[in-house]
Amino acid sequence: MLKTIQQINIGILGGGQLGRMLIQNAINLNLNISVLDPDKNAPCRYLVKKFTLGDLNDYETVYDFGKDKDLITIEIENVNVEALKALEKEGKKVYPQPHIIEMIQDKGSQKMFYQRNNIPSPDFFLVENKKQITKYADYFPFFQKLRKGGYDGKGVVKLVNPHHLEKAFEAASVLERLVDFDKELSVVVARSESGEIKCFPVVECEFNPEANLVEFLFSPANIKKSVEKEALKLAADIAEKLGIVGLLAVELFLTKEGKVLVNEIAPRTHNSGHHTIEGNITSQFEQQWRAILNLPLGDTSIIKAGVMVNLLGDFGHEGNAIYQGLEDILKFSGVYVHLYGKAITKPFRKMGHATIVDDDILKAKQKARLVKNTLKIVAK
Hints:
With 380 residues, this protein is α+β, with helices and mostly antiparallel strands. The chain has 3 domains: 9-94, 3-Layer(aba) Sandwich (Rossmann fold); 123-177, Dna Ligase, domain 1 (2-Layer Sandwich), CATH 3.30.1490.20; 181-379, ATP-grasp fold, B domain (D-amino Acid Aminotransferase, Chain A, domain 1), CATH 3.30.470.20. Helix content is 26%, strand content 31%. The chain is built from 11 helices and 21 strands. The termini are far apart.
């Protein structure tokens, strides 16, 4: 007898903010969720009946967590893939599939995937150490990206001159040639177990130059229809070629010549999809459950124009978090605050986000900048 979705025993690897928002949507479907995370104070800890404290990169820990589950998913790709492969062989459903997680864990493998499949992406070279970088002196400047372990701007350094490599990483890396881009875009695409594919509308990202992570996100992106069409086609094509089950975030460059290039992909719910909770008919978190449970994918249409602002820990503050100005921003219509339940703030740590929706995108942008300047996350 087939189990109903409420009877399926589901495990999530990772208990951070993405897991927290996944669980908030899982509650609507009365799903049975367990979480594994290395932090005893993880944001998800008290939202599930079963929380397991453990290392996401330890084979035995991940395998033991998954062996009584029917379905395992992730909120972070830095997990033990070999344990997931073993669970998959034993008949557990693991979405996204372990071989896809493994490929995406390695930025070099990502770039080679694009190359093999004729997916437009910035030119690159692979190096094993700092010394090898000098072989490509004629092609500077580069972004050097660690093949493994980088996230949220960490593991990335700009190299402008082959004679000044003191900041370069002494590790296996991708040298990605600088792109003279006009905008950074993102598409979140879902593919279900049955092969149904749906994309969320293209969004535009504005990065914090100091932290190298998204500060503002604008939905919809201010781009030409032809660019929008190309971006959506690229995202759907990548999801199909991967055969992924679940969500895939596709980060893109729009060059000044109007070309769309793939920067990186992430096989999970993503910071560039947070606005969908209030801004779209179906949120990215609901869509993840629909995709991996093989339910019909939801309508991704925009309800209202939206701006998402990441709420980051203030520079110079580390310790127990205090949210200054919260009452002030909650006075504004169309402002929705999501705090992630992290007890400790650090400079540029993602402590939450706010989504601002409005019929007028310009008014939403004005409110978003006011939110950023008013709400401060400081330490006691």
